[in-house]
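STRUCTURE:
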């Protein structure tokens, strides 16, 4: 599944943010955020509801513009200060619950994945589908073990099946980073387990995973860096074993939290 078509110099950060502030309605929803993500890193961004996790992703996708009044503000993608939709496609594949809600029409599994090439919800008559695209969709679906969903309509799929297709949709561009924004919301125990196994397979294939969550159980063993967000600020950033501590979590969520560890996964008891 991985290729070198989008190769960047391994020293160039995929994402470089310095002093990023975003305001809405006179309130800072991100406040002087510094964050650098390097090639090959797998990270989890964790924080309570409203801490700014989705806003941070929206800065990367260009949906939210940071305040430009600070001279030392940096927002660089693949080493560039200015980037196009094509640069972004090379960089990011995004899977979120919001996106899943948009797929509320009768679209087949194959078309869901194919629509990743057009950043659209489904396929329309003006889309020029090439043989190469079709071959890539087949390859990605095989890798994700979802070929059997090709002809099934998304409206007739379980949440877990639909979420796997959205991963396929995110991967057809062979992006450097797969962003999973609260990916296990509304998945049952088995689908949750399958989703985590799939994420592990993708990380092993060389993609960087950026997981946005407030669930410790989502953090696959391949994720070794954790960024904690609180009230729009970076609260902590570092190696998993240093950041996933009971003290930090109790402070982050303002609640006494106990952490346990089993088979490379962490769990919170509160
Ligand atoms: N477009 C907007 N207009 C006004 N306020 C906004 C906007 N976008 C985000 N916010 C506010 O910014 C804060 C951070 O929101 P954000 O969605 O980034 O948090 P989050 O950590 O992803 O939360 P959750 O875990 O609940 O998804 C919240 O208080 C939210 O209400």
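SEQUENCE:
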């Amino acid at each position: 599944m991985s290729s070198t078509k989008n190769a960047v110099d391994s020293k160039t950060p995929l994402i470089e943010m310095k002093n990023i502030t975003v305001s809405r309605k006179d309130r800072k929803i991100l406040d002087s955020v510094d964050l650098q993500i390097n090639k090959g890193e797998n990270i989890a961004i964790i924080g309570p509801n409203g801490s700014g996790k989705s806003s941070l992703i929206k800065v990367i996708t260009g949906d939210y513009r940071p305040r430009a009044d600070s001279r030392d503000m940096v927002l660089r993608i693949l080493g560039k200060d200015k980037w196009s939709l094509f640069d972004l496609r090379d960089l990011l594949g995004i899977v979120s619950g919001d996106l899943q809600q948009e797929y509320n029409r009768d679209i087949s599994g194959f078309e869901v994945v194919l629509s990743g090439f057009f950043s659209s919800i489904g396929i329309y008559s003006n889309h020029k589908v090439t043989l190469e695209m079709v071959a890539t969709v087949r390859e990605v679906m095989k890798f994700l073990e979802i070929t059997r969903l090709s002809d099934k309509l998304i409206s007739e799929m379980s949440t877990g099946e639909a979420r796997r297709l959205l991963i396929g949709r995110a991967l057809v561009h062979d992006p450097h980073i797969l962003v999973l924004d609260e990916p296990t919301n509304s998945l049952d125990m088995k689908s949750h387990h399958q989703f985590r196994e799939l994420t592990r397979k993708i990380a092993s294939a060389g993609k960087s995973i950026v997981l946005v969550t407030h669930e410790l159980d989502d953090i696959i063993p391949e994720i070794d860096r954790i960024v904690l967000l609180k009230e729009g600020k970076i609260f902590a950033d570092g190696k998993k074993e240093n950041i996933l501590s009971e003290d930090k979590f109790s402070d982050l969520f303002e609640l006494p939290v106990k952490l346990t560890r089993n088979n490379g996964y962490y769990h919170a008891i509160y």
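REMARK: The radius of gyration is 19 Å.
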